[in-house]
Amino acid sequence: MRAQFVLSEIGVGLRRNLTMTFAVIVSVALSLALFGGSLLMREQASTMKGYWYDKVNVSIYLCNKTDAESFPSCAKGAATEDQKKEIRADLEKMGVVQKVEFETADEAYKHYKEQFDKKSPIAGFVTPDQMQESFRVKLKDPTKFEVISTAFSQRPGVQMVQDQKDVLSNLFNLVNGMNYAALGVMALMLVVALMLIVNTVRVSAFSRRRETGIMRLVGASSFYIQIPFIMEAAFAGLLGAGLACVLLVSGHYFLVNNWLVDQIDLIQFIGWDAVLAKLPLVLAIGLLMPALAAFAALRKYLKV
Length: 304
Known about the structure:
Helix 6 runs parallel beside helix 9. By secondary structure, the protein is α+β, with helices and mostly antiparallel strands. The chain is built from 9 helices and 4 strands; from the N terminus they run ααβαβαβαβαααα.
């Protein structure tokens, strides 16, 4: 009988404040969707870092005959065969080095033409003798770039030492910036949702002040009186969390699986396991957050 009464009170409360309940559902859904999206974006950034940092190389560019005027380190002319052999031998002795590959000027020119021939207006003016020979060094630990840089940047015949990981820093900074922006908007939406929940509870408590007063007079406990209000908020929050889960699943299916995967081949996107793992957390927050907000609000507004 008590359970039936509580359920009936929940239905009455939701019907009386239908517009505000709908606003709570939407605001909770948007804030939790942004929360889940920011978690997925952070995991995507970690996946990208692990994927790309495992593939990046350290490039040791050698001097060619056209570098003497542009690079002081190349003042003595192009790298000699003895210098190349010495650099390769020293690289292969280093414990941080996993693999060493040598790229000739002709190979560098071929790769350049493949990448920029249709994009760069000066591609047609570049000749193979202007390209640098280089050693592509695969490190066991990508963070050990300074070891290679210190050892070879001032060596005779070396134009410069470049860490390809630095090229990716701007991309990861952009992803992290988008993640922080999503968290900021999520926090704002969360504040709006909490204010709506508190206001909805206040209106609901005021509209039923006569019923709650009678219940208090006949000996009902404070917790028994508060249960319908708390469950109303929790139910609305759970609906919002469910909608947020639908948005996350739909976003991954339509945006990632059916568009970005086809448009961007160079990124390894997170899978369904990462998305599904976040849904229980979203549902739990959607259930508990409104319930706790309602409980805190009732201590102030449910006084008869």
